[in-house]
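Human: If only I could read backbone structure tokens as easily as an amino acid sequence. Take your time, and here it is.
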Amino acid sequence: MSQKNKLTLSVQYPDTRLKDLIPRTDIRRWVQAALFAPAELTIRFVNAEEGRVLNREYRGKDYATNVLTFAYTEDEESEVTQADIILCTDVLQREADEQKKSVQAHTAHLVVHGVLHAQGYDHETDDEATEMEQLEIEILASLGESNPYAEQ
């Protein structure tokens, strides 16, 4: 699906719980699979407290969520996608457990989801959600991951 686009990637683990389980090489592979253009991205793993603060400050929602994408170049003229993608370790681990998935598989899905958001994809309407979910399924399949929306 993806041609190799130029990628500048920073991975930050202020919450270090997943640092050994989710190596930078896997993250780079997942990001690259979801890129349709060159990108400069930061992937940051945070705890529930930091995730909640960011979600409250920037989205007005007072809870930690699984992934937040701060896209800085969503316009058509941008030649390089720039974004910060925040993954909340606590929520990610809880959801993986609830969905009976490995933490790696769920992280791969959330990284792909965040990278698509960074490139302007959204799921505000049913049509947008259908398009974004289909892309996620195809990208994850290309990585050898199962459909994250299939019933468990």
The beta strands are 7-12, 39-46, 67-71, 81-88.
